[in-house]
Design goal:
heterodimer, A: 118 residues, mainly beta, seven-stranded mixed β-sheet, four-stranded antiparallel β-sheet, 0% helix, globular, B: 112 residues, five-stranded mixed β-sheet
């Protein structure tokens, strides 16, 4: 199946600094990628939809100036958490849609990034 | 949007067959049913997808009754490594991610 690579897997930073998370589709082109965050023992919550070559679409309540998304190529999307604060500590997951060889749609997910802000 | 309801948690033992049922009473005609598995500190992994009747792959089976208001994920002969959270999703093909709502999922615990 399709592979989505996400880096780093874990990052610890000081409050006020910015952190960049990369999401790459390794064996397919993803015109659309999605970013989720997940708190412990909770479900995934969609933050934004990343579209190659255009501005990202953010879900209600997600600050676009705090969570900067760039999707400059068909295989790479980045999420930058700017001026991170302890409340931004969470598990961030990216995913990409692969139409692939089937007529049905599947979402493939990265391995996630655990962000801890001190 | 079709909302899904699953049991919060389930327990079973190694070697048993586990069936997790998901309710989706207001499923639309063009909605597909997809199940994902998530281990701690990892992203979800696609398990199986279906539209009606029965679908089987090397990992699981998916049973969907004629009215499609529910579906059952069947895991044959589970092992400890099947301990994970299982999510049932309902959405039409080509839908935006905002239409693909992750419910609470079912936390499956397998014991020796």
């Amino acid at each position: 199946g399709a592979v989505v690579s996400q880096h780093p897997s874990r990052v610890i930073c000081k409050s006020g600094t910015s952190v960049k998370i990369e999401c790459r589709s390794l064996d397919f082109q993803a015109t659309t990628m999605f970013w989720y965050r997940q708190f412990p023992k909770q479900s995934l919550m969609l933050m934004a939809t990343s579209n190659e070559g255009s501005k990202a679409t953010y879900e209600q309540g997600v600050e676009k100036d705090k969570f900067l998304i760039n999707h400059a190529s068909l295989t790479l999307s980045t999420l930058t958490v700017t001026s991170a604060h302890p409340e931004d500590s969470s598990f961030y997951i990216c995913s990409a849609r692969d139409w692939g060889w089937t007529t049905n749609e599947k979402l493939f997910f990265g391995s996630g990034t655990q962000l801890s802000v001190l | 949007l079709a909302k899904t309801t699953q049991p919060i948690s389930m327990d079973s033992y190694e070697g048993q067959e586990v069936n997790i049922t998901c309710s989706h009473n207001n499923i639309a005609t063009n909605d597909y049913i997809t199940w994902y598995q998530q281990f701690p500190s990892q992203g979800p992994r696609f398990i199986i997808q279906g539209y009606k009747t029965k679908v089987t792959n090397e990992v699981a089976s998916l049973f969907i009754p004629a009215d499609r208001k529910s579906s059952t994920l069947s895991l044959p002969r589970v092992s400890l490594s099947d301990t994970a959270v299982y999510y049932c999703l309902v959405a039409p093909p080509g839908s935006s991610a905002s239409k693909i709502i992750f419910g609470s999922g079912t936390r499956l615990s397998i014991r020796p």
